[in-house]
Amino acid sequence: MNKKLILAGAILLAALVGLTAYKTKEQQQQEIANAIAMKLDEYRMLKQEECTARINAEARRRFDEYVASLPPATSGKPGKVVKPKQSKPTTPAVTPMPQTPPQDPQKQRGGAVQEGNVEQQKQRGGAVPQGDVEQQKKRGGAIKVEGGN
Fold it and tell me: Domain count of the chain?
């Protein structure tokens, strides 16, 4: 009985290994594509770093040549830094416009009440006499609605 149990276990183990060890063609191609993409990314980053290093070295070489071609700065005292003089940009002279005090267009219109002339405003047409509160409440928008101000 033990021989049969061991034989059955060995067959099951072989079947399990046999079924899981082999992958489908699509899975294999996908794994290969992923591996190639990783290697390509590594190679691209390596080449980009090399290119950046070469560009920086060339830029440094050209800058050093440029600095060497400049005439040496002369200073009056040793250790004193000479600053280049900056010329002020010339701008055309602008003559300012004469300033007039701003005028309120409401005061210029006809029939406007001037300051200090309050009685004329009270007498204007359509004005409600001050003591007539009931007539004021009848005006549109004068009635207080709940929840309002």
Answer: 1
